Backbone:
C-alpha cells in the first residue's frame, strides 16, 4: 500500500456518514463519492495529499464503522485493516478519527477504541458548521483526557479547518503513546477475569499493555473478535491454530466467571467505555443528556415523507416522475446532439475525398458513436435524480419504509440502495451490497440486481420506443412513450422481486439478519458533489462510446462492407453477403421465433460487449447499406426497412417490444459478472446468473412475439 | 415491558436486553445502554421497523429486535 519507502501515510477512520470521504476529497483534491447515506464507501481508497509545507503523504479512506468489531462486510474491511496495522509492518503514521460534531458521544466511542491501538490519533471534529455556537470547550484538555494527540474543529463541506488538521497530523507523526495505561477503570472481578486472556495475547502477538487489555475485553464481549484472527491466517499473517484453540478456551473460562458474577459479558466493553466516555464529556461540559423529546426539521419532514400511507405513495410517484422525465426532458438536448452529429458527418463528406476512409469514418465511426451519444442527456437526467435522492438523505428513509416489504420477498431494507443504483449501473450496485449484514440476503440481492434496467439499456429502450411507440397521450396527460419506458423498468423490477422470493426459498444459508440503520438528517444536496457524480457517469458513458463502441463500429464496418461483391442489382445484397451478413444469417434461425432478423442478430452478438452497442451496430449497418451521402437517422431507417420477401415493414411495434423485453432480462454485460465473481469468491454464482437471465430473456421474448402474433398484432 | 410495546411518540428508559440477543453488542456500541432514554418516533409503513431517537441521532430497528429490549416507562 505504501508507495515510496519514506512517504508517511494516514488513515481516516470514523462512523458511517461522519464525513470521511468529504475530508478525503478536500485533502486529496479527488472526487470520491460523498453522500448522505450511512455506508456509501465500501472499499478502501488511497490518494495523495500534501502538508501545508508541501511534503507529500498518502491518505487512506475507509468504509464507516461504529466499532472495531464488524457486523457487515464493509465494516470488516476496517477491522482487518486495523489488525494488519498491528500485526504487519506497514502501519499508518497517524490515524485521523473523523467525528460528527452533532453526535459526539456515539462518535467518540470509536475514537477511544482507536486510541488504544498505540498509533497517534488526531480527531477531526467535522460538521462544526452545524454546531458552531454550542461548543465552548477546552480542546487541549479534552484531547488529553481522551488520550488523543489533538482535536481539530473543521467543516469539510465549507472547507475550513483542514490546514489546522494537516498541521496536527504532521506534528503528531512519530509521537509515541504506547506507554499510556488503559484509561478505563476495571474493577478487581473484571481485571482478574481478563488477566489470563491478556497475558497470552500479549505473549503471542507482542501487544502493548493498553491494546492487550482492550483486545482481551473485546474478545470477551464479541466472539467475532476471535473469528477475525482465523481470517488473518489467510491474509499472509498466520496465527497458530492451536493458539486460537487455547484462546477460545480461555475466553470461555473468562465468560463463565463473569456470568457467575452476574456481569453481562456481551455488553461489558461498551458499558465500561461509555461510562468512562460520558464522564469525560460531562467534565468537559459537553451536554450529553440527550434532548430526545426535541423534534428537529427532519422529523417534521418525515411526518409526511415516511408517513404510513403518504410515504410509500410519494416514493412511487417520485420514481414514476423520474422515469417519465427521462423521456420528456431529454428531447431537446437529444435533438441538438443529433443535429451536431449529422453536421459533423456532412462536414467530413464535404472535406474528404470520396473513398474507403471517408466511408469508414462516416458510416462506421460517426454513425456508430453518434447513435449512442444521442442518449447522453437521458443518462445524465437519470443520474441526476438518483444522486439527489441519495444525497438529500431520502434513500435512508426509503430503506426504512421498504424493509418490511423487502424481508417478505427475501431481501433486506439495505437492498434498496444497491437496487436503485442498479438503475444506473449494476457494478457499483453490487459493490454496495457489502453493507447488508446477512450473507443470504446479500447474495440474493446480487443475484437479482442485474435485472434492474441499467442506463446501458436505456439507449436500446429509447431507440425502439422512440421509433415504434406512438407519441400519443393516454388520458390526455400521460405520455405513451414515457409510460412504455416506465413499464419496462417495472417489468425488470417486478421480475427481480419475484425471483428474489424464489431464490430465498431454494438457497439455504443459515444466518441472522438485522436492520440497524441510522436515519441521517435531511441535508441540502452538496451540488458540487452531485454534479461531479453526474458528470463522472456521463464521462464514463462517453469514454465507453469512444473506446469500445468506436472499436466495434470500425470492425463492424469492415465486416459489413466486405467482401465487396459486384452486384448490379443494388447494394442491399452486398451487405447481405458480407461477413457480417453471413454471421447474422447463421444465427437467424435461432432468433427468428423472437421476431428478430439477421441485422438484429448481429446487434445481439455485439451487444455482449456492452448493451448500448446494439444501437451503434444498427446505425453502422444501415449506413453501410444505404451508401448514401449522409448520416442517416437510425430511427427512420428502421421504420422504413422492409422485409425483402414480403415487402411488409421489417420491424413492427411487436418486434420492438420483443427486443426491449429481451434486453430487460438478458445477461450481456461481462464486467458485471467479473464483479460478482469477486464479491462471491466463486464462479458458481455468476454462471448461474448468466444462465437464468438468458433463459428468461429468450422465453419472455418468445412469449411476447409469438403471443402477439397469435393475438393478431404485428 | 419491551420496546416493542412502547407506543409511538412515548419516551422510556432502557433497562436491559433479553438473554442471548445477538444484536445487543452492536446496540450498546451505538450507545443504547441500560439507563439511556429513548423515544419511539414511529413505525414504518406495512408495520415495518420502528424509528427511535437516542442520544443525538435517529435509528431504525426491526420490531422483532425491539422485543428483546426491556424498558421502564
Ligand atoms: N454540514 C456539513 N455536512 C457535511 C460535512 N462533511 C460531510 N458532510 C455531509 O455528510 C454526508 C456524509 O459525508 P461522507 O463524506 O459521504 O461521509 P462518510 O463518512 O464518507 O460516509 P460513509 O462512506 O458512508 O461511511 C454528506 O451528505 C456530506 O455532504 C460538514 O463538514 N458539514
Ligand atoms: Mg465515505
Residues:
Amino acid at each position: 500500500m505504501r508507495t515510496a519507502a519514506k512517504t508517511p501515510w494516514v488513515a481516516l477512520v470514523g462512523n458511517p456518514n461522519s464525513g470521511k470521504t468529504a475530508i478525503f476529497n478536500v485533502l486529496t483534491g479527488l472526487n470520491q463519492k460523498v453522500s448522505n447515506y450511512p455506508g456509501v464507501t465500501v472499499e478502501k481508497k488511497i490518494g495523495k495529499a500534501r502538508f501545508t509545507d508541501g511534503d507529500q503523504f498518502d491518505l487512506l479512506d475507509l468504509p464507516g464503522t461504529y466499532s472495531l468489531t464488524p457486523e457487515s462486510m464493509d465494516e470488516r474491511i476496517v477491522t482487518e485493516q486495523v489488525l494488519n496495522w498491528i500485526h504487519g509492518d506497514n502501519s499508518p503514521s497517524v490515524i485521523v478519527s473523523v467525528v460528527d460534531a452533532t453526535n459526539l458521544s456515539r462518535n467518540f466511542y470509536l475514537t477511544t477504541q482507536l486510541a488504544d491501538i498505540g498509533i497517534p490519533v488526531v480527531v477531526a471534529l467535522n460538521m462544526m458548521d452545524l454546531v458552531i455556537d454550542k461548543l465552548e470547550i477546552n480542546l487541549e484538555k479534552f484531547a488529553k483526557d481522551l488520550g488523543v494527540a489533538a482535536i481539530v474543529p473543521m467543516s469539510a463541506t465549507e472547507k475550513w479547518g483542514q490546514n489546522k488538521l494537516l498541521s496536527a497530523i504532521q506534528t503528531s507523526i512519530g509521537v509515541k503513546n504506547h506507554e499510556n495505561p488503559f484509561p478505563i477503570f476495571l474493577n478487581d472481578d473484571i481485571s482478574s477475569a481478563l488477566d489470563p486472556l491478556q497475558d497470552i495475547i500479549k505473549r503471542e502477538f507482542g501487544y502493548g499493555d493498553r491494546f492487550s487489555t482492550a483486545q482481551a475485553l473485546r474478545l470477551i464481549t464479541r466472539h467475532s473478535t476471535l473469528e477475525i484472527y482465523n481470517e488473518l491466517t489467510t491474509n499472509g499473517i498466520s496465527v497458530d491454530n492451536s493458539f486460537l484453540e487455547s484462546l477460545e478456551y480461555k475466553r470461555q473460562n473468562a465468560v463463565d466467571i463473569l456470568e457467575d458474577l452476574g456481569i453481562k459479558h456481551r455488553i461489558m466493553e461498551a458499558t465500561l467505555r461509555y461510562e468512562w466516555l460520558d464522564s469525560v464529556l460531562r467534565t468537559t461540559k459537553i451536554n450529553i443528556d440527550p434532548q430526545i423529546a426535541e423534534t428537529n426539521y427532519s422529523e417534521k419532514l418525515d411526518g409526511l415523507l415516511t408517513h404510513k400511507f403518504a410515504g410509500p405513495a410519494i416514493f412511487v410517484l417520485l420514481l414514476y416522475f423520474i422515469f417519465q422525465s427521462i423521456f420528456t426532458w431529454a428531447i431537446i438536448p437529444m435533438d441538438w446532439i443529433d443535429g451536431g452529429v449529422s453536421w459533423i458527418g456532412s462536414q467530413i463528406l464535404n472535406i474528404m475525398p470520396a473513398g474507403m476512409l471517408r466511408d469508414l469514418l462516416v458510416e462506421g465511426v460517426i454513425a456508430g458513436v453518434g447513435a449512442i451519444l444521442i442518449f447522453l442527456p437521458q443518462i445524465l437526467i437519470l443520474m441526476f435524480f438518483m444522486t439527489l435522492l441519495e444525497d438529500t438523505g431520502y434513500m435512508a428513509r426509503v430503506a426504512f419504509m421498504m424493509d418490511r416489504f423487502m424481508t417478505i420477498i427475501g431481501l433486506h431494507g439495505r437492498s434498496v440502495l444497491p437496487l436503485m443504483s442498479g438503475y444506473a449501473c449494476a457494478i457499483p450496485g453490487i459493490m454496495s451490497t457489502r453493507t447488508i449484514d446477512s450473507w443470504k440476503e446479500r447474495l440474493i440481492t446480487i443475484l437479482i440486481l442485474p435485472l434492474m434496467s441499467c442506463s446501458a439499456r436505456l439507449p436500446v429502450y429509447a431507440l425502439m420506443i422512440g421509433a415504434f411507440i406512438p407519441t400519443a397521450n393516454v388520458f390526455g396527460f400521460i405520455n405513451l412513450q414515457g409510460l412504455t419506458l416506465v413499464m419496462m423498468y417495472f417489468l425488470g423490477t417486478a421480475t427481480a422481486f419475484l425471483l428474489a422470493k424464489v431464490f430465498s426459498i431454494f438457497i439455504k444459508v443459515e444466518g441472522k439478519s438485522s436492520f440497524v440503520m441510522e436515519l441521517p438528517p435531511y441535508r441540502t444536496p452538496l451540488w458540487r458533489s452531485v454534479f461531479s457524480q453526474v458528470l463522472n457517469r456521463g464521462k464514463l458513458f462517453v469514454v465507453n462510446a469512444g473506446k469500445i463502441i468506436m472499436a466495434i463500429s470500425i470492425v463492424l464496418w469492415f465486416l459489413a462492407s466486405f467482401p465487396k461483391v459486384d452486384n448490379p442489382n443494388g447494394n442491399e445484397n452486398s451487405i447481405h453477403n458480407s461477413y457480417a451478413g453471413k454471421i447474422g444469417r447463421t444465427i437467424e434461425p435461432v432468433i427468428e421465433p423472437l421476431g428478430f432478423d439477421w441485422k438484429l442478430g448481429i446487434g445481439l452478438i455485439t451487444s455482449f460487449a456492452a448493451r448500448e452497442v446494439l444501437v451503434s451496430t444498427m446505425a453502422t449497418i444501415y449506413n453501410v447499406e444505404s451508401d448514401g451521402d449522409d448520416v442517416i437517422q437510425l430511427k427512420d431507417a428502421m421504420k422504413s426497412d422492409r422485409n425483402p420477401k414480403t415487402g411488409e415493414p421489417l420491424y413492427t411495434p411487436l418486434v420492438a417490444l420483443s427486443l426491449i423485453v429481451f434486453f430487460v432480462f438478458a445477461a450481456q454485460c461481462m464486467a458485471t459478472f467479473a464483479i460478482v465473481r469477486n464479491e462471491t469468491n466463486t464462479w458458481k454464482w455468476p454462471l448461474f446468473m448468466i444462465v437464468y437471465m438468458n433463459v428468461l430473456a429468450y422465453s419472455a421474448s418468445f412469449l411476447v412475439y409469438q403471443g402477439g402474433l397469435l393475438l393478431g398484432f404485428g | 415491558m419491551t420496546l416493542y410495546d412502547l407506543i409511538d411518540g412515548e419516551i422510556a428508559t432502557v433497562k436491559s436486553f433479553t438473554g442471548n440477543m445477538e444484536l445487543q453488542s452492536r446496540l450498546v456500541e451505538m450507545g443504547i445502554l441500560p439507563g439511556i432514554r429513548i423515544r419511539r418516533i414511529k413505525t414504518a409503513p406495512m408495520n415495518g421497523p420502528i424509528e427511535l431517537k437516542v442520544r443525538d441521532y435517529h435509528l431504525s430497528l426491526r420490531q422483532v429486535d425491539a422485543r428483546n429490549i426491556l424498558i421502564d416507562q
Q: What stands out?
A: DSSP finds two helices and five strands in chain B. Helices of chain B lie at 24-29, 63-66.
